[in-house]
Specification:
Shape of chain B: elongated
Structural class of chain A: mainly alpha
Largest interface: A-B, 86 and 77 residues
Strand content of chain B: under 5%
Oligomer: heterodimer
CATH architecture of the largest domain in chain A: Up-down Bundle
CATH class of the largest domain in chain A: Mainly Alpha
Number of helices of chain A: 6
Distance between the termini of chain A: 61 Å
Distance between the termini of chain B: 53 Å
Strand content of chain A: under 5%
Number of domains of chain B: 1
Number of strands of chain B: 0
């Protein structure tokens, strides 16, 4: 519980709430990028350097840009932007608050299982991750590569222009 | 409160915020943003439990988070392609108006 932790947590949570509460979609995408960057910094704070850098590359770099592109491609006239909240926003917010209350109660009341001091980190984390990916986790890695290829092809096919003759 | 509980509370709040946004916003893109935030909350849990668990040298939490990030990236790409295809067909991304499966 240090000062950097609280700063990063504030950045992440404010960004997350802003990403879902602002009215302008582009502002939402920017707030999402801020929240994801804060989360990446939290990973670095936790000592997970590879995951933190991958988070910056994948989320802040790729997913945020993808969302901005989707926003720009799907808006026709600014005055017709959907926005606002759906018919009963209260219901969704109440459900979310209830979920948070239950999770927070569980975390606070079952704290005995957690050790308060972190164990010592292994010295050469990156090399060990590489070794694990190439040895113990090589099959999941290959499956992941196959899935990413399928997702790439599927996304391109889905976003292709519809042919008129196909009807 | 231990540090692990702090991280878990942050993750719980992130999940709840994503859930509330996905349930209450009308734009399909914002629903997808909410889902991304929920996935990130799960990743934060993996990393926090890895760091404060008894055996951080085993790296299972790290690798689970890496695979989870890859799956989330694929999900975002396919989801946004679906939104663009739906927009081209129905001329809207308002999930309240997308209520028919046969266009």
């Amino acid at each position: 519980m240090t000062v950097p932790f609280f700063i990063l947590v504030a950045l992440t949570l404010v960004g997350a709430v802003a990403a879902l509460a602002l009215r302008n979609l582009v502002h939402c995408a920017l707030a999402l990028a801020a929240a994801l960057a804060g989360l990446a910094a939290i990973y670095l704070l936790l000592g997970a350097e590879f995951v933190g850098l991958a988070q910056i590359l994948v989320y802040v770099g790729a997913v945020a840009i993808l969302i901005v592109f989707a926003i720009l491609l799907t808006r026709s006239r600014p005055e017709l932007l959907p926005e606002g909240i759906s018919g009963s926003p209260i219901a969704g917010i109440v459900v979310a608050a209830a979920v948070f209350a239950i999770l927070a109660w569980a975390v606070v009341s079952f704290g005995a299982v957690s050790s308060s001091t972190p164990s010592a980190l292994p010295p050469d984390e990156m090399r060990r991750i590489g070794d694990a990916l190439m040895q113990r986790f090589v099959l999941p890695l290959e499956v992941m590569a196959l899935m990413l290829t399928a997702a790439l092809i599927g996304a391109v096919i889905l976003a292709l222009e519809e042919k008129q003759s196909a009807r | 409160m231990t540090p692990l509980q702090g991280y878990l509370l942050v993750s719980a709040f992130l999940f709840a915020a994503g859930l509330g946004g996905a349930l209450s916003r009308r734009s399909a893109i914002l629903v997808l943003i909410g889902i991304e935030l929920m996935l990130n909350a799960a990743n934060l849990n993996f990393i926090a439990f890895w760091r404060y668990g008894p055996h951080p040298e085993v790296l299972t939490g790290i690798l689970f988070a890496i695979f989870s990030i890859a799956v989330a990236a694929a999900e975002a790409a396919v989801g946004l392609a679906l939104i663009i295809a739906i927009y081209r067909h129905a001329k809207t991304t308002d999930v309240n108006q997308l209520d028919s499966m046969k266009g």
